[in-house]
Amino acid sequence: MRTLRADMMKSFLWSLLYCGSLLLSDVRATYHLSAGDPHLLAAQSHAQSRLNGRPPFRTINPAKTDSQCRSRPLDLVFIIDSSRSVRPVEFEKVKIFLADMVDTLDVGGEATRVAVVNYASTVKIEFLLKDYGNKPDMKKAISRIEPLAAGTMTGLAIKTAMNEAFTEQSGARPRSRNISKVGIIVTDGRPQDQVEEVSAAARASGIEIYAVGVDRADMRSLQQMASIPLEDHVFYVETYGVIEKLTSKFRETLCGLDPCAMGNDCQHICVNSNASYYCQCRDGFILNADKKTCSLKPFVGQLSEVKVEVVVDPCKCEARLVFQKKTQAAIEQLTAKLVAVSGRIEHLENTVGRA
Description:
The chain has 355 residues and is of the alpha/beta class. The chain has helices at residues 2-31, 38-51, 65-68, 88-104, 135-143, 154-165, 196-204, 219-225, 230-233, 246-254, 318-354; strands at residues 69-71, 74-81, 113-119, 123-127, 180-187, 207-214, 234-237, 255-257, 269-273, 276-280, 285-287, 294-296, 298-303, 306-311. The strands form five sheets. It has a six-stranded mixed beta sheet, with helices on both faces. The protein has a two-stranded antiparallel sheet with strand order 1-8.
């Protein structure tokens, strides 16, 4: 009888041990995945594609340049003639042209900086590249410019712009930044000083010069001042009344297509960089070696003897991580209990055998 009860107890305990081992195996298969386990990789891939999907592919509509076109970063200096030949009403047209150009440009400390040099027989720097970082303030400053009258010292104006307006002290970016330096000269007459030599020096220093002639402007002087190719850097209009039409011409010249808007391979963020672009990742992610895609920043911890990769969930769903840790703790407790039960069964077997 005692032997029968012992056999029944032995059978029951082994059944319990077997069921526990099955439960342990199932739980481990579900929650105890190693860092390289394909199930874990698939889960992470699904979560990342759900929360951080690639932006929709964008294309350029050539007919809508207003929204897709942005000026490349420039250090831009306008050199404007306000000699006696420019009547007050005509000078107002020049100021409107400058204001329209400012509206066209992508103005800002890290974008295009603008200065204005006013000249006649004397030269006056109306404001420097470092003075204004937004369009409203810049346009107010333009509206306050007054003509100087008398004389047309264009060469002196170019020299002043080169030596004073285009310097780093005045707000020009260092040459290492590779920011284009552009001078736009607007004049309606013949220079009363030499322009060829000083213009050559300005171009040699890295300044790209555009020459705009109005009415009686001397075409030869315009060509001596301008950068090459001359067909791209010399403009002429018959009167100041139509100078505003040049805004669209300069927009085509100074405005570059937005590289990011043209379509890119960045998984998260596309950043314009002069005529090119580079990719960045959102917080909590790192840029992969391909410089285009992003991965979650890993936090590698160790539970028991198996390494588990724990990632920071962008949704801050900490409950899932807490549940996984509690499950692992429960598994370890169950394992300890099963080991204890196994030891008791072995002890009972030995006792029954001696009986």
